[in-house]
Amino acid sequence: MKVSLCVAVATGLLAASAMAQEPAAPAQLKSLKDKASYGYGYSMGRNMKTQGIDLDPAILAKGLADGLGGSEALMKDAEIQASIQEFAKQIQAKQAGMAGQAAASNKAEGEKFLAANKKKPGVVTTPSGLQYKVIKQGTGPKPKASDTVTVHYEGKLLDGTVFDSSIKRGEPIAFPLNGVIKGWTEGVQLMPVGSTYQFFIPSELAYGANPRPGGPIGPNAVLTFEVQLLKIGE
């Protein structure tokens, strides 16, 4: 995971400050300012937790209060910058190590899963390594890679965690078929309209070793999707 020096540290500072001050927060968020203040704090705190930024909330709250209040800093500007930069390096090193361990673990787990899964009844493996199973076979036309399609879908990690679902949102999604991950581009072209397929997508046909930082999908993760092809077009 790559961490922006300024964004990561600023996020940590603001988030931890917000968490440290939580007991003093108003019982009700009445004004837009109240709601925005809480929203910023909560979002940043959640991001900081996801990134594994371990700072002292009370001291951060003190720093934020001093900065906003115009008080004299407890450190010189040069020392502040140096400490922030050094701490950010430590965070990056820690996250790189964790990402490397996760990548190796996910790769081994994914390979084991796919090797066993391809032997199951009804599972088809394509030359690219994509695996799929027909849940319901439709009778409509099949889309081309250049088409826009409308689908319902649910994506899961191998442990069953749902990381995205248009079904739960209650709203199908339309997208150009050549603008998504390779496993989708290949797999959905196999589906006649009206079909429901289950896809088992190797990491190299999904997000590979570099998924979105802070997201639920880890490096080298095999993903499963249940996809309903509703129509070709939006």
From TrEMBL:
GO cellular component term of the entry, any: membrane
Q: What is this protein called?
A: Peptidyl-prolyl cis-trans isomerase
Species source reads: Aquisphaera giovannonii
By its UniProt entry, which PANTHER family does this protein fall under?
39 KDA FK506-BINDING NUCLEAR PROTEIN, FKBP-TYPE PEPTIDYL-PROLYL CIS-TRANS ISOMERASE FKPA
Catalysed reaction(s) here are: [protein]-peptidylproline (omega=180) = [protein]-peptidylproline (omega=0)
UniProt key word Signal = yes
- PPIase FKBP-type domain sequence ranges: 146-233
| SUPFAM superfamilies assigned to the protein according to its UniProt record, in alphabetical order | FKBP-like
Region forming the signal peptide: 1-20
Give the Gene Ontology MF terms in alphabetical order. peptidyl-prolyl cis-trans isomerase activity
UniProt lists the family membership as follows: Belongs to the FKBP-type PPIase family.
